[in-house]
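TICKET: design request
STATUS: open
ATTACHED STRUCTURE:
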């Protein structure tokens, strides 16, 4: 039986990827709750869906199998018990908004088919969705106080963040922001109960019940033996250390975890918003993450003599560290926006550094980042552009919108 998860690099030919087509959840965004739901503007649903379909088609045209989150989830909740358990967990983890209405809400959710229930949970449940005559508590009548029982999940199309495949195992992440915390419940259920995955022995390197956060945008598989992880606004040093220990204890081929400290700001929320790998020796970088002489805080974690104590070495230069861990003489760091401060800031804001590699030297990018795209082309990279007017409003690019499940091993 072929193992369903296999990712040994950032750039190996992409075989299977998980996407989520934006749905009505983005129409439950209103100006009042934008910040809390981690958006800067409200996407126009028909256009964001069209752009997303174009993205999916661009991948399929290159032979990539695209699997969708809602479909996998529907196939996962095969029994009434599991459906109920899932609804209870979603309600339980939304308890602040649900207040005393969990029974009412559960009855409401279970009245839908499994597929529709999953969509409802993704979209969010408004207080006004529930029949007036079923309301018994004062709180249930207070729709003007806070409109949702279940918040919408507009960030679901960034499938990169809630989980990441490392080798043949998975990190099911503890999302940092409350607005995204429930997203990794989907992957937890899929891994445990979907027939494509549940019949395999899939190691879980990190689990969402851990105290400290970790998000997939920070997890980069640089090579079969090295993982880079951003210490960012979303990923904590404690979580990185825990993941590293698990990998060192259970996955022999992983030799190094590189913790890359990046500024803790919204524009640079994950490592992949400022740094991605595009070929054996080529990377995108947002110049603003480095000091004047290219200095940064980087820590190389390796197995220690005692499994509980890692060997930690401090490094200051990203390019040199990459050359050392990848065994390369030279590497090319391609600056977002060609390094011009205005263009770099503008294109990075729209994810100019957030490329998705689908094979060595072949990337998917947003069309709007034309200066960065041109620079990639001039350096021998094949660039597949996708439309991005609405997709970019959520502050994530093609890498953020994709979770690779299978990649081919690299030839070298
Ligand atoms: N890997 C990524 O950088 N993902 C983008 C996530 C954007 C989303 N609006 C968020 O703030 O979490």
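STATUS: resolved
RESOLUTION: sequence designed for all positions
ATTACHED SEQUENCE:
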């Amino acid at each position: 039986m072929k193992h369903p998860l296999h990712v040994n690099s950032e750039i190996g030919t992409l075989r299977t990827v998980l996407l989520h087509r934006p749905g009505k959840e983005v129409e439950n965004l209103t100006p009042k709750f934008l910040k809390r739901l981690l958006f800067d503007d409200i996407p126009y649903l028909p256009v964001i869906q069209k752009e997303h379909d174009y993205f999916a088609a661009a991948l399929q045209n290159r032979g990539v199998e695209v699997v969708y989150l809602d479909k996998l989830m529907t196939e996962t909740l095969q029994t009434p018990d599991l459906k109920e358990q899932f609804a209870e967990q979603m309600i339980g983890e939304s308890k602040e908004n649900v207040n005393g209405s969990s029974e009412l809400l559960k009855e409401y959710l279970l009245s839908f088919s499994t597929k529709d229930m999953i969509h409802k949970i993704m979209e969010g449940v408004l207080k006004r969705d529930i029949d007036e005559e079923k309301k018994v508590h004062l709180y249930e009548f207070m729709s003007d106080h806070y409109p949702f029982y279940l918040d919408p999940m507009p960030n679901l199309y960034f499938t990169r963040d809630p989980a990441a495949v490392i080798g043949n195992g998975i990190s099911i992440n503890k999302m940092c922001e409350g607005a995204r915390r429930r997203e990794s419940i989907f992957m937890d259920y899929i891994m445990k109960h979907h027939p494509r995955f549940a019949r395999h022995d899939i190691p879980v390197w990190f689990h969402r019940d851990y105290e400290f956060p970790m998000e997939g945008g920070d997890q980069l598989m640089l090579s079969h033996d090295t993982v880079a992880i951003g210490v960012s606004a979303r990923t904590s040093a404690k979580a990185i250390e825990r993941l590293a220990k698990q990998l060192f204890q259970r996955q022999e081929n992983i030799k190094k975890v590189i913790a890359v400290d990046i500024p803790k700001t919204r524009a640079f929320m994950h490592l992949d918003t400022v740094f991605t790998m595009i070929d054996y020796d080529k990377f995108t970088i947002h110049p603003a993450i480095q000091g004047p002489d290219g200095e940064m805080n980087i820590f190389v974690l390796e197995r220690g003599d005692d499994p509980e104590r890692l060997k930690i070495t401090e490094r200051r230069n990203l390019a040199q560290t990459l050359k050392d861990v990848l065994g390369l003489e030279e590497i090319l760091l391609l600056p977002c926006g060609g390094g011009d401060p205005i263009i770099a800031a503008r294109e990075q804001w729209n994810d100019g550094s957030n490329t998705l590699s689908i094979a060595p030297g072949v990337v998917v990018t947003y069309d709007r980042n034309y200066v960065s795209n041109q620079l990639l082309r001039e350096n021998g990279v094949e660039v597949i552009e996708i439309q991005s007017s609405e997709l970019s409003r959520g502050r994530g690019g093609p890498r953020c919108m994709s979770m690779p499940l299978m990649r081919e091993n690299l030839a070298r």
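CLOSING REMARK: The first strand starts at residue 14 and ends at 19. The chain has a mean pLDDT of 95.
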